[in-house]
Amino acid sequence: MIAAIRVFGYSLFAIFIGLLFMGIGRKIIARIQLRLGPPFYQAFLDVGKLFARKSITHNFVMDLGMIMSLAGLLSTMLFVPVAGHMAIKTSSNLILIIYLMAIGHLGMAMAAAASGNPNATIGVSRALTMMLGYEIPFFTVMLGLIIFNGTSSLELIAQSQAGGILNWNMVKFPLGFLAAEIALQAIMGEKPFDAMVAPAEIASGPMVELGGKYLGLAFLTHAVSIFVETGIMVNLFMGGASNVFTFVLKQFEIYLITILIEAVFPRFRIEQAVKFLWTVPMSIAVVQLAIILL
Amino acid sequence: MVEILLVPLITAFISDIFIKNKRLVWFLFLISNGYILYKLYSLYGKWDLTYILNTDYQIFGAKLSLGLSNNPLGWYFAFFSAVVTLVIAIFSIGFNTNSKGNVAPIWMLIIFANLGIFYAADWITFFMMWELMGWTSFFAITNGNTKALDGAKYYLALSLLGGSSMLIAILLLGAYTKTFIIITSAYRLIQLFNLAEGVFTTILLLFIMAFFIKSAIFPFYMWPSKVYAVGPEDYIAFMSSVMIKYGIYPMAIFIVPVIGNLQLPKIFNAGNWMQYFIGYLGALSAVVGTLLAMFQTDMKKLFAYSSVANMGYILLGFASMSIVGFEGSLFHVVNHIVLKAAIFLSLAAVVYRTGESEMHKLGGLVYKMPITFLTFLFGIIAAAGIPPLNGFGSKWMIIQALMEKKMVVLVISMVFASTGAFMYLFRALVSIFLGQLPERYKDVKEVPYTMSIPMIIMMGLMLLIGVVPGVVMKPLTIALDALGYKVDIATWTTLSSSFKNATIDLKIVFYMFAMGIVVAALMYLFGNKSETIPQHDNYTAGENPIEWGVDADKFNYSYSFYQPFKEMFDPLFERISIDRFFSSIGKNFEYISPTIQGLYKRGEGAVLLFSIGVLLFILGGWIL
Amino acid sequence: MEDLKANDKRSYIDNLIDFFRKRSIWMLHYCTGCGAVELPPSMTSRWDIERFGIVPMATPRQADVLLVTGYVSLKTLKRIIKIYEQMPEPKWVLAFGSCTVNGGIYWDSYNTITNLAEYIPVDITVSGCMPRPEAVIDALQTLMEMIQSGEGGAYKKYKENYEYYKKNQDRVLRKTAPILGSSETESIYQEKEGNYET
Amino acid sequence: MNSIVFLVVIPIIAAFLSLFLGKVNKLIAYIVTIFNLSFSIVVLVSGKIPFNVAIGGWRAPYGINFVVSDITIFFLLLINVAAVLSLTTIKEHMEYQFYAFYFILLAATNGMVLTGDIFNFYLFTELTTFAIGGLVAYKRDRLATGASLKYLILSSTASTFSLAAIGLIYKTLGTLNFADIASKISNLNKASLSLILILFISSMLVELKIFPFNIWVVKAYDASIPAVNLFLHGMVSTAGVYGAIRILLMVFSKNSIMLSQSSNIANILILLAFITVIISEIGALTEKNLIKVLAFSSMAQLGIFLFGISLGNYEALKGAFYIVISNYFAKFVMFIVAKNYSVIAGSRNYEDMKGLGRKYPGLAIAFTISALSLMGMPFFAGFWGKLSIVGNALLMDKIAIIGVIIILISSVIEGVYYLRISHTFFSDGNIQDTKLSRINCVLPIILAAVILIIGIYPNSIENIIWTMINEIQNTPEKYIQVILPLK
After folding, report:
1. C 80-119: CB under 8 A from B
2. NAD: is it a keyword of this entry (chain C) (predicted)?
3. Gap from A40 CA to chain B (nearest CA, Å)
4. Taking a contact as any Cβ pair under 8 Å apart, which residues of chain B between 558 and 617 contact chain A?
5. In chain C, what is the straight-line distance between the N-terminal and C-terminal CA atoms, in Å?
6. Residue A224 · residue A77 · CB < 8 Å
7. CB under 8 Å to B83, separation ≥6 — which residues?
């Protein structure tokens, strides 16, 4: 029972942080564009509105897929140590996290495709292609860290960086961090790697038929994924944190970098994006890996 | 112990006689499979059972004796194959009620060969069963279907080639080690390495070629796509899940111990060249299989390439030459047996109802065949290696083992392949089951109970193995223990690798996923109520496609699903094609053939040729 | 709009929901006419309507408010109606300029409609030919106030008086049946039309 | 056992009588053939083997003699069984020429096996040629005449070589008796031996269907009636195989050392063998005429046989025997099935035979079993042959290993075209109802069962083969001593 409450609490916390980041991100982009921008809590308002709205579903697979998508990311989130805390104490294996994250994508893709709109399916096709693009460099960077630390546990990797900023993997392996940052841009689906959403081209891709609470669930999924992805980065490169507040702050630093890049870039075509990811960040990651191995 | 071989053989003969009575034949098939499973279950633990048949046949100066033995690894393969075969057998009863041909007798022969391979104690028995499987599966694939001939011919040629290469290897092994017993010959082969390295390498490579052909590893990866596309679907389910593992079993029992025990210099502190040889071929099959699977339009071809990729994973596990990788590979064997059978059963159900296997001509079947969809969904989740189902554990172990051995290229290609797997698996899901339902499939129904129950069983199996991997890992650890490998006895739900703090508890993963579902469902219920609208009511920029005479199923985006991505690879695949290479060999033979026939048709040339022959013969006799 | 005023008691939850709705208006700007040109300035840094939580959306499923930005030809009307019907409730319509009220300079065209409100319920009409961004923002803010006070319920009217709207729509849309396409499309369209009510 | 001469004499008398007997010929043919068969069985059972019969009381090496040893009786049985089986396929009325030639063929092939004299052997070979020439031309159309002529030209050229070789032997060794030659062969210098062997072998290779001396085969098979196909396969080839074993392994082998060490002829033979195999398999690959396919395949099988005996290893020789036996039974099955099916389909093109396997499954299954045996698949007789030959060839030098690879590749090709044919039989098709003679339906199944039994239980034949190999191994005691007991 306590475990269940903890899980629920962690979920709400992750959603809260994710939505907060989304709002702040929008504000920052607005400021970069010399606009006032929406208030920082805008994402909450949006989600609130969406859940209150009457929504439209085409069939039960859409409902199932949206639930699966949020559930997948929530359960992934439970494996990411937040400043050393976890909802249920278990080994936070990196490979497990990577694979678990896929279930969220699968659910989302299934819901999108079940709507029967070709734009959605095109978006899914692009998203999956992009996934193949970013997984390779990101995994290569992770591989270096795993081999260096002799463990695939995210928690142990975070712990091994304890004791000052100079011990952070970000400082020790700057090339790896750079590659991971570029890959992270694609993982989060921010510009220049947002070909799968591309509102002007394929009418926001997978989300084209989502409205009301389905879009709301998609927002929540996105919020949790921001939390998970920045959380992984913090644990991998910034030495985790001693308390939750520092952890969230570090997460925000990572998210800030992403947002700053997002604000100023146009969009890659999908195959350009994959080519870019397989050349630039991948070669940086390979150099980093070679340095670690030799 | 002999009875598990005799029963399928006798069943094959009996069902051959009653071939016209379909119901009886398939019922016999089911009974026989059930008996085999029961018998295998009772054989568990009796590892010293052997059966030897002495013959007067003399080879290399000694009388040949053929033997069977209940070896733990063979049991492991045989048992799980038998479980899945039984489920497929139940499915077949429903599936074959209207079909024209009847593969049951020949299938029974294949099961006989199957058990023979897993229970063979010596290479000659092994080879006999191996070759038996080759030609029987040719007949099972073609099954009187003229269109199936091309693919089956390709398979047969490769299969016979593999058989030949294995025959040479076995006989060389017998000549140099003076034994045909599999286990003994492995030990003696290792000793041979120091005496005659050339012979050793030849034997090993020939064996590997035979096994790779059967398991569709890299240079020989073409046959599944050709064969699966044409064979009877229920048999293909068996073939893609069980039969493709035949190459893996001898790899596990012979090649891996031999390579593992060699004292070879290591490259980059990671592994010796033989490990890399196996590993790179595995990685190539994983990557190439994945890429090709993405670009298929026929769903059976797609999953054929997926099988190729999965065989690649298994090989990668072997290449790590660590106990975790080895265990992971063998675990993946069972996982793949289960999940591929599930996927192909659901595909068989789709073909049964629609008669179509081109993905872009299907779509929206989920509304008509929910159980089939669910089986397929479970299958692809498992195949993508996503946690609560069974494909994850083994992939995880293989990746852990490779990372531990610092085989970075191999592990990156493994991740590439399993991420790419996500692409083609999802593509199949979308194209077959989701999207708009074509008008012509409005009356499609869910398959009858005889077919849906096996699918439900497969779903249960996937979930069971996924959450409680112990049901497979326990027998596996005991089998490995009996073979002399030191393994930790795993608990029912945990998997571990030798990394620091790298034990995952799949039970907890399952709980967490379940809780995730609960939280997400709460969120879902929290929202305002939703309304279901017709499937074709889509945002189309205000256009009404029906008004323009466009059917709803034209909305399905499923043809050239990954076109931009494919264009990246087009130059590569246009330039290099293993398929073209192998086909061209066959084509060249067929090209020469009429010339030679012409030689035998004409008269004047004959006399000329004859005299030249005599002349050369005489000259040769003097000069040589 | 007087009769649409909420006559029952509004609970806190309803107020909260209306607050959310008010502060997060997502618009679908259906660029039918010249008024579309005024939207980019209102969204970018000079006027920045995002500070009210107003953002453009790509599909009717996600949008709360439909902007009809100028004159509406018959062909366009058909699409507008379809999109309007595809939007989930609650939904609002903003009509731009005089063209949507009386046809504007196209008042005697054989091919444009003169009054949008005959075909779909319009919540707010923005004056001007064409309205400046200030006018657009003003209209949107009026809409926000209407939402908060529970007034903006024109979409309910559409449901209640569907026959009226349908009759008007059919009257003009008869002229727009496609020449291409299969011969049976007309009948199919007639049969399936009912399904498009949402 | 002087009456062994009857095996040759009675068919010759029958050949003469057949000119006058007309319709009774069929009966006489059965009687004579069954007599030959039962006589051979009686000889086998009598337990007096080995023995030597001097014709006319002239003792060897001066007179002509008939020898009955283990090998002889084995091949005698094969030939006479083949004769009986072939006769069963004749349903329609045959003219007297056919029977006359048949009796001569029977006499000649029996004589070839029995004789202990090289010149006599030559005579019987010529007689065979002459009989086959007549039988192939029996249909009297353009194709048959052409085929017959082609065969006659090739054989007569070959017999010229043969005669030259015999002359040389007589010149150098002063004797024509097999046993005598065998005991004196070590006196011969290498060059003369090589020359004699080359000349003699090149004549024998015509009968053995080895490239490039097999140009006649395909046409002859295609042009002749089914019974003649079976004669060619069952009697002539078997006699040729016997000749090759007797002459290469027993007569011209020095001190019972096997061929490959005694001369470089062996290397040429291996080369020819695998060229034959690959060429005939490739030739068969796209062939649509079923009879031609079988003709190509029988060339290939004899190529493998030659490969086996040229390796100079007793186990490989054993394999060669297995190949001969497997081929003997399998081709019988296949020719009979081909005959039946072509009658039903009205064409020899196997693509016209679709659906026959579903209508007459027994025949198609028998055909498949034979095909698998020829491919050397396990559980069939051919496997044991392939196992022995390949296994022992791998122990030899390079050329043998290349040969193994080529033979295995061609067995892949063989598999492809044979199983394609089997598949065609089992696929859907329209068939008219045709009545088949019962014996022609049952016979292939029985023979296929024999193949299966040998394949599953090699003990049944292993010992017989070893007795024969024993004889070859101990030629001086087992063969020469029988004929020339005084030495």
Report:
1. 80, 82-83, 86
2. yes
3. 23
4. 558, 561-562, 564-565, 567-568
5. 22
6. yes
7. B37, B461
- Among residues B492, B55, B380, A250, which one has the least CA distance to residue D387? B55
Q: Where are the domains of chain C?
A: 10-189
Predicted TM-score (pTM) of the model is 0.88
CA dihedral D445, D451, D453, D459 (to 10 degrees): 160
Q: Is B42 exposed, middle or buried (0-12, 13-18, 19+ CB in 10 A)?
A: exposed
Partner-chain contact B603 D150, CB within 8 Å: yes
Same domain for B339 and B473: yes
B132 → chain D, closest CA residue? D378
Judge: A200–C59 Cβ closer than 8 Å, yes or no.
no
Cβ-nearest to C88 among A42, A48, A54: A54
Q: Provide, as residue numbers in chain A, all residues whose Cβ is less than 8 Å from the Cβ of B533.
A: 56-58
Q: Locate all alpha helices (DSSP H) within B356-467, ordered by sequence.
A: 370-383, 391-404, 408-433, 449-467
What does DSSP assign to residue D379?
T
List the end-to-end C-alpha distance of chain D, in Å, as a whole number.
22
Q: Write down the residue that tokens 């326990």 correspond to.
A: B474
- Residue D335's domain spans which residues? 261-480
ipTM score assigned to the predicted complex: 0.85
- Which residues have C-beta within 8 Å of that of residue C107, sequence separation ≥ 6? C114
Choose the most confident range, by mean pLDDT, from A128-142, B503-517, C19-33, D257-271: A128-142
User: In whole angstroms, how large is the CA radius of gyration of chain A?
Assistant: 18
Measured N-to-C along each axis, helices D459-473 and D314-345 cross at an angle, to the nearest 10 degrees, of: 130
Chains C and D physically touch (3 or more Cβ atom pairs below 8 Å): no
DSSP, res C183: T
Do C178 and B541 lie within an 8 Å CB cutoff? no
Instruction: Count structural domains, chain D.
Output: 1
Over the stretch D364-420, which tens digit does the pLDDT of each residue have? 889 989 998 988 888 888 888 888 888 888 887 777 888 888 888 888 888 888 888
- Residue C5: band (very low, low, confident or very high) from pLDDT cuts 50, 70, 90: very low
Residues B392, B513 within the same domain: yes
Q: Backbone dihedral region of B80: left (phi > 0), alpha (psi from -120 to 50 degrees) or beta?
A: alpha
Say if residue B524 is in the same domain as residue B594: no
The total of other beta-carbon atoms located within 10 Å of residue D48's CB is: 10
- Report d(CA B417, CA B415) in Å as an integer: 5
**Among candidates B24, B32, B41, B44, which has minimal Cα distance to B5?**
B32
Whether D24 is covered by a domain: the verdict is: no
Number of folded domains that form chain A? 1
In-domain check, residue D175? no
User: What is the identity of the amino acid at A54?
Assistant: K
Q: Which domain holds residue B606?
A: 586-623
Confidence label for D425 from pLDDT (cuts 50, 70 and 90): confident
State which H helix or E strand residue D65 sits in: strand D65-68
Q: Which residue(s) pair with A267 in the sheet?
A: none
Q: Has domain C10-189 been given CATH number 1.10.357.10?
A: no
CA distance, residue A209 to nearest chain B CA (Å): 7
- Inside any domain, residue B4: no
Whether the pLDDT of residue B588 is over 80: the answer is yes
Reduced to 3 states (helix: H, G, I; strand: E, B; else coil), residue B500 is strand
- State both tokens at D378: 């396990």
Query: How does DSSP assign C30-84, residue by residue?
Result: E--SGGGGGHHHHHSTTT-GGGGT-EE-SSTTT-SEEEE-S--BHHHHHHHHHHH
**Which of A55, A58, A69 lies nearest to residue B527, judging by beta carbons?**
A55
* CB contact at 8 A, B66 and B122: yes
Say if residues A130 and A196 touch (Cβ distance below 8 Å).
yes
Stretch (H or E) spanning D192: helix D190-208
Around B81, how many Cα atoms within 13 Å sit in the side-chain half-sphere? 30
Are residues A7 and A224 in contact, defined by beta-carbon separation less than 8 angstroms?
Answer: no
Rounded-to-integer distance, Cα A73 and Cα B516, Å: 8
